[in-house]
Specification:
Blueprint: E1 2-13, E2 16-27, E3 31-35, H1 42-50, E4 58-64, E5 67-68, H2 74-80, E6 82-85, E7 92-96, H3 97-102, H4 110-120, H5 124-127, E8 131-132, H6 138-152, E9 156-160, H7 168-183, E10 187-192, H8 195-198, E11 203-208, E12 211-216, H9 218-228
Parallel strand pairs: 3-10, 3-11, 6-9, 9-10
Antiparallel strand pairs: 1-2, 1-4, 4-5, 7-8, 11-12
Helix pairs in contact: 4-6, 6-7
Amino acid sequence: MSVLEVKNLSLTLDGKKILDNLSLEFWEGYIHAVVGPNGAGKSSLASTIMGLNGYHNFDGDILFKGNSLKQVSIDERAKFGLTLSWQEPARFEGLSVSDFILASAKQKNKEIAENALNTVGLEPASYLFRSVDKTLSGGERKKIELASIMVMEPVIAMMDEPDSGIDIASIEKIFEVIKILKKRGTTIILITHSLAVLDQADHAFLICRGQLQDKGSVEKISQYFKSVCEPCDHKNKPDGTIQSIDKQNSDIFQVDKGEKDE
């Protein structure tokens, strides 16, 4: 059953077409990966789904449980259970880690925050009363953001480059959190160009120049991604990229229109 559907989504920013008639279907309770090289439109897709400022004027539609989100504010989307973790987490001067984690928690008590911090690999006694500011590293803030998502218990959790700025040991903790969220019934959308992150998914979409190129199993998409895709030389400017596609393999870039690909 689809919990989120992107239908013929097109987005133009600063005269550049970032998303181009993109259609994706996310099944409830699955871990989905949206992969593609830098500049493919992955983060713009997540921002549009979340309804961030500057991403409202799009063609097509986004359906959450069959209902259009086109006129729904970011606050209302959050209340519906949609959340987005950032590639570069925000800082909040003066806000404690405990208050940040519990801000959207269904149960607001210290034990909930402590358990979440332990799960992401941070010692509660060392972090609960610290400020979410520049004294924390990017990796620490990313873990704290994941802790806040855990206690939020979202319906859909989008994670933009969840391994960015994270050491190897911490990456394993993040992967544990992803598995915990799935077990709780959360639908997870991983925005990534990392094969390690892709391997955590149940199903994957490959996009390039804001268009769907293929979809299917992780094994299928990872082979395409490794052998065919190369980084774009113009980040987030799909119309101006020289996205390299091996001409000998170009025939594999045909969208599989079947249901729930194997």
